[in-house]
Amino acid sequence: MIKSNSGIRKTDVINRRMFIIGAAKIVVFVGIIARLFSLQINENKKYLTLSDKNRIREWKLPPTRGNIVDYFGNVIAGNLKVYQLHIIPEQVENFNYLLVRLKNLLNLSEKKISRINKLKAELKPWDSIIVSENLSWSQFVKINNYLYDLVGVKPVMTISRNYPFNDVYTHVLGYVSQPNEQEILDNQIIQERFVPGMKIGKLGLEKRLENHLIGTNAIQRYEVNAYGKRINQLEHQKGQQGSKIRLTVDTEIQKACGELLNEKAGSISVMDIYTGDIIAMYSSPSYDPNLFLFGISQDEWQLIRNNPLKPLINKTISGLYSPGSTIKPIVALSALENKVIDTKFKVKCTGKMELYGQTFHCWKEKGHGWVSLKNAMKQSCDTYFYEVARLLGVDRLNITAEKFGLGKKVLGEYFDTEKRGLFPNTKWKKNNIGKGWVLGETLITGIGQGYIQSTPLQLCLMTAQIANGGYAIKPKIIVDSNPVSYEDAKQSMESGLLFDSNSDSLLDKKLFLDKKNIKIVQEAMFSSTNERFGTSYKSRIDDPKYQFAGKTGTAQVKRISKRERELDLELEQIPYKDRDHALYVAYGPYVKPRYALSIIVEHGGSGSKAAAPIAKKLFKLIIDRHDLRNEQSNFERITI
Amino acid sequence: MFQHDRLNSEITLFQKIKNLDYILLISIILLSLLSVFVMYSTDGGEILFHTKNHFLKLVVFFPLMIFVAFFNIKFWHNLSYIIYLLVILLLVYVSFFGIKSSGSQRWMDLYLFVLQPSELMKVAIIMCLAKYYHRLKIENVNSFTSITIVLTIICIPIIFVIAQPDLGTSILIALSGLIILWLGGVKIKYFIYSLITFLISLPFIISFLKPYQKLRILTFLDPDRDPLGAGYQIIQSKIAIGSGGLDGKGFLKGTQSYLDFLPEKHTDFIFTLFSEEFGFIGSVGLLILYSIIIFRIVRIGSISRSNFARLFCFGYAFAIFIYIVVNLSMVLGLLPIVGSPLPIMSYGGSSMLATMIGFGIVLSAKINHKQMIA
């Protein structure tokens, strides 16, 4: 019985202790349920978000760039479907075999093969390797024919930038290419929208208008697993193409400029003298921007880079030239405005002018005899302008020249490569060279030589502002939201009610003191082209519809020695580098002027022989297209 | 006395079947079926390796449980020490000839399946200690000799298991053993003193831990210190459970597991997947099912006439409870990560074998609850 008692006592102990445990169990289970409640009910939202963050990944696709069109709506920078070849390594059965097959089919280089192998090692097996960015149609067809044998190869159609007019607009548009690290870091928008394979503007308007052209990414949402592999597509969100930009340029005229400057180094600019629209700005030689889209080959790049005619420089805005005699209308105007001379003022040209023991030559060795303003301009008499410059002084000349746009950027906001040029004065020399101004320097400034430097576009603007009666215009290349119509601009200028589109200071628009003076200069320029003995008389057009007025210029690139002057060499006998630049500025039609242009042929010889004939050919086209242009004025307006 | 002996020896097969605890049995069947479905989900909604094997093991081990149940509880009482020694021998064998996998040596190859003896020890230790306390006079429970003996019984297997190394299982074995000490009547103050000693020596113990074990403790304290490395498992587990919400993402729709964000989803983190797909309601439901099983085992213990059966049932109920608590606390981020399976639900043959044998003995205690053991 004692034993049994002991057994009962033991059972009691066990039961009592079990009771305590049982209570503890309930407490613990309740604790676990509380934890579950807190995770699943209280914090459900937070964890649901985290779970979605885990499983959903977005893939951005390259955005489609906006088109750039000319004034008539022709696409000059567009987008083209291109065929690409991708390899998805995880689907490939035998990688080496595939590479050998592709190498034969597409003539891939050894270098390319090793690059593909390198990419394969770097990327995840399900990330596609781009073998070829731009397959020709025949290559694409070939690949598709052999697709059964090329496991893991994916022919892809995608969109790429395209410049349908090849080299015609290179210096205006620039080109696109893959961005480097700094470019991505510098631009917030590019940084946000960057995806591998995306291209950005590297130069010109493509670069300047990047943020308008870029467009937004299309977004693909995929469910991915823990290793980042795509399991299925959840959503496709379309991207928006970048803004369409309409330029003021006319492709027909731009193309003609290119043809006229074929195989020459130089530049042509054409401008609407009332609205400031740039009709054409061509820098020669040019190059094909399409070459840069898929990575330019080293050979092609060297060819462009080492070309002695310097195709990489946009000569229209970055080329600096002595204006030569094309400055004479400004010298004349400045002298008239300052009442230094009048139309009756005459100078006797003996072919040279002596000053403090220095001799200043006129281009005509025998001299022009007694010349008035009109004749001096017509025959481009240097002696007359030496004398006028001497009487006027460089500082007064500088004021007039800067009013007309010399020494200032013309399109500065659009092109960061644009140069300011230089129109000197005494203060400038003292500050920058540290020496006092010498009278001799005033004389050569009077014929557009010496320190003075200008871009072709500045000379075009200068001419346009003389042609429109002496009113300031704001040159532009993009059609803005509130374009000034030709008639409005012209009428407001002629009626004296100065037209104001962007509430610039009204008085600044008027560049003259006495309207008569502008008229005198215009008439002098007319005679230079349309009267016998005028320097560009041979390039005149008699039909009043096309008749234009202009001024030639021949800019020395080096000092002519006495010996050379005596030799009087023919152009062909002078080394290319030492030949003069040929310049011509003009506007027309003379009766009702509409357009101004400037032409520069580097080392082309004299302005009358090399530059003025180009204007003759161009003017007919420009005037013929005027009516077409007028019809287009309400075509489409884009806000920039 | 005589009458009882006669009663037991004359129990028929029919009576045995009739005496089975059907609530417990049905709960176990429900849990087994549920585990197959969850395993099917871990295979991504296909009948693959894990589902097939898990099902196969259930098909083998469930009849084994009934088989075990049909032996008299007295038989298991008599065999307790031998079973304990046998498992010790297996542990010794494993420590010399066991299969190595991911840095530890815990398994032995039995051709048909790979056995992990330490899992069997979880049940064997309860049997052994239950028998010891059944036979020990209540006056001697707190004697120096008896306490030395029981601590030795607990320590021998633990030494082998820690050496494998397998901290999780050794903790579970220790807790399973200690609960019998508690139930057997060892003075409460001894437990309190031991706990205090343990807490004081904790920093010392930690310094002896392996680097990966230390890392687990650090990770538990702050999972975000290395979210893609050591903290990854626990962070992903919490995301899965938390995102399940009230009613879950739905069967086969748990994105965390389906997309492989969950580690160890077949074994230690099976609850995470279940909870993601079935939510708070499902999780509480599963806990209720486990509670029913635990409660039934406790009830069988309390109607048992022999103290061996009583101690075993109470001890085993507590062991099941502890497995669940350790596993759930781990996946819920309440405890550091120690490898511990969820009974029946987790994939793993040895754990299921041990659990089913335990259930078998419990059912045997039920069938023979009137059996007295001398």
Topology:
The complex is a heterodimer of chains A (640) and B (374).
Chain A: H1 2-42, H2 44-55, E1 56-61, E2 68-69, E3 75-87, H3 95-106, H4 110-122, E4 129-135, H5 137-145, E5 153-162, H6 170-173, E6 176-177, H7 181-186, H8 188-193, E7 200-201, H9 204-208, H10 210-213, E8 218-224, E9 230-237, E10 245-246, H11 251-260, E11 266-272, E12 278-284, H12 298-305, H13 315-318, H14 328-337, E13 346-349, E14 352-355, E15 358-361, E16 369-372, H15 373-379, H16 382-392, H17 394-403, H18 426-432, H19 439-446, H20 456-467, H21 486-494, H22 515-530, E17 549-555, H23 562-567, E18 581-588, E19 595-601, H24 607-624, H25 626-631
Parallel strand pairs in A: 2-10
Antiparallel strand pairs in A: 1-8, 2-3, 3-4, 3-5, 6-7, 8-9, 11-12, 11-19, 13-16, 14-15, 17-18, 18-19
Helix pairs in contact in A: 11-24, 14-16, 14-17, 14-22, 15-22, 16-19
Chain B: H1 2-9, H2 13-19, H3 22-42, H4 49-69, H5 73-97, E1 99-101, E2 104-109, E3 114-115, H6 117-135, H7 144-163, H8 167-184, H9 188-208, H10 211-221, H11 232-244, H12 255-258, H13 270-303, H14 307-331, H15 349-367
Helix pairs in contact in B: 3-4, 3-13, 4-15, 5-6, 5-7, 6-7, 6-8, 6-14, 6-15, 7-8, 8-14, 11-13, 13-14, 13-15, 14-15
Q: Can you offer a commentary on this structure?
A:
The complex is a heterodimer of chains A (640) and B (374). Chain A is of the alpha+beta class and 640 residues long. Chain A has two domains: 59-246, Penicillin-binding protein 2a (Domain 2) (Alpha-Beta Complex), CATH 3.90.1310; 251-631, 3-Layer(aba) Sandwich (Beta-lactamase). In chain A, the strands form six sheets. In chain A, strands 2, 3, 4, 5 and 10 form a five-stranded mixed sheet that branches. In chain A, helix 11 packs antiparallel against helix 24 (607-624), helix 14 packs antiparallel against helix 22 and helix 16 (382-392) crosses helix 19. The termini of chain A are far apart. The model of chain A has no long low-confidence stretch (mean pLDDT 87). Chain B has one domain. Chain B is built from 15 helices and three strands. Chain B has a three-stranded antiparallel sheet with strand order 1-2-3, covered by helices on one side. In chain B, helix 13 (270-303) runs parallel beside helix 15. The longest helix of chain B is centred in the C-terminal third of the chain and has 34 residues, at 270-303. Chain B starts with a helix and ends in a 7-residue tail after the last helix. The A-B interface holds A 6-7, 9-11, 13-15, 17-18, 21-22, 25, 28-29, 32-33, 35-37, 39-41, 43-44, 46-48, 50-51, 54-55, 223-227, 231 and B 133, 137-139, 179, 182-185, 236, 238-246, 255-256, 259-261, 275, 279-280, 283-284, 287, 291, 294, 298, 301-302, 307, 310-311, 314, 318, 321, 325, 328-329, 332, 334.
